[in-house]
């Protein structure tokens, strides 16, 4: 094992051990930690800083308890299932972009424009390297990002005003903020959760019913497992070496990471 490989494995172990309760095992053969940093994530009710870790095959994030030492609520997104959309700044949410996945989509914001571009560029480069020689899945359905609670004071379907008793809800299919009366229906949205019936608004309920037959046909085709299955065991050279020799030029920095977006680290 080379010095760079040892440094990479050590840092991955540190990230893995920093999550408590423990999350998914992160130290796996051919996995490389490319970069890390703190980004602001738009949640349903508020914006919150999260720790993000970009690997060559997955994107991991979690809530910060003690910076660089303790995280919780680990979430893992395979890079093969990610789509990025650049977004314009608004008055109080700068340097943002949208991460779309089949199960969940959300807005992120970086402290500076330079850091935003670094994240977007490196995610796309890692994804391109991961899928090299493969045909991307053109049939992926991406979840809609939820409209934040504070963005609307009225139901986006019937326009009734929200009150303490007439609470806000979200349609899982279109992401609209809706009242209870407009979202009493439940539907199965396979790319979000194939096992649960999810809250949907009336127009989306009709759409879901119409799409049920075609969705069943699509998901009857066997799909692969996690991102690690994209690597074969009989590669002539390790994924680590291939990655280091690519345009990403990994480990040129003394830190061993391609980029690191938080100066307090």
Describe this structure in words.
This protein is of the alpha+beta class and 265 residues long. 22% of the residues lie in helices and 26% in strands. The chain is built from four helices and twelve strands. It has helices at 3-18, 113-130, 202-219, 239-245, and strands at 33-42, 47-55, 58-66, 70-78, 83-86, 96-100, 105-109, 169-170, 177-178, 185-189, 193-200, 259-260. Strands 1, 2, 3, 4, 5, 6, 7 and 12 form an eight-stranded mixed beta sheet that branches. It has a two-stranded antiparallel ribbon with strand order 8-9. A two-stranded antiparallel ribbon has the order 10-11. It starts with a helix and ends in a 5-residue tail after the last strand. Keywords: Metal-binding, Zinc, Zinc-finger.
Question: What is this entry, summarized?
Answer:
The protein is built from 4 helices and 12 strands.
Named at the architecture level, the CATH assignment of the largest domain is Roll
* CATH overall fold name of the largest domain: PH-domain like
Structural class: alpha+beta
SSE string, helices as H and strands as E: HEEEEEEEHEEEEHHE
Mean pLDDT figure: 82
Q: Which regions have little confidence, pLDDT < 50, spanning 5+ residues?
A: 222-237, 247-255
